[in-house]
Amino acid sequence: MSIYEKTKGKRVDVDYETGYHFIIEYLSEDELAWTALSKTVEGAPDHETEPYSSLEIGEDRYMVNWIEESGLVVSQVADFAQGKVYAFMTWPDNAARGKRAQLLHKGTLTVLD
């Protein structure tokens, strides 16, 4: 089953321990929308629609990846079985190693009706 089929018509609440909090809606097999509920970078949008790719990596576990217009890359593991989410984010930053800043998140995942 794809992540779209699993969440079709529902929203996914993703709340990271780093203070970032999002609602994600999988609009189709290749497009999602996210809305930031808290902690965004100054000047960054609070919602966007993104093309994404995903892969089921276990029962009720998915790897989801997308690249935002700003160059921010998100690689996320959504574990619906355990209600957990992990994400590695990287974005352009000339002062950082490889000219990319990075942040590793972990948090909770809740499917909302």
| Named CATH topology | Lipocalin
Mean pLDDT equals 95
Structural class, from helix and strand content? mainly beta
Major sheet details: 8 strands, antiparallel, barrel
The fraction of residues in strands falls at: over 45%
CATH superfamily label? Calycin beta-barrel core domain
Cross-sheet strand order for the largest sheet: 1-2-3-4-5-6-7-8
Query: What gap, in angstroms, lies between the N and C termini?
Result: 19 Å
Radius of gyration: 14 Å
Quaternary state reads single chain
- What percent of residues adopt helix (DSSP H or I)? under 10%
Tally of helical segments: 1
Q: Indicate the low-confidence ranges by residue numbers.
A: none
Highest CATH level, the class: Mainly Beta
Note the overall shape. globular
Number of extended strands: 8
In the CATH classification, which architecture applies?
Answer: Beta Barrel
Which series of helices and strands comes N to C?
Answer: HEEEEEEEE
**Overall number of domains:** 1
Tell me what the structure shows.
The protein is mainly beta. The protein has one domain (3-112): Lipocalin. Helices cover 4% and strands 60% of the residues. The protein has one helix and eight strands, in the order H-E-E-E-E-E-E-E-E. It has an eight-stranded antiparallel barrel with strand order 1-2-3-4-5-6-7-8. Strand 1 (11-16) and strand 2 form a beta hairpin. The longest helix is centred in the first third of the chain and has 5 residues, at 3-7.
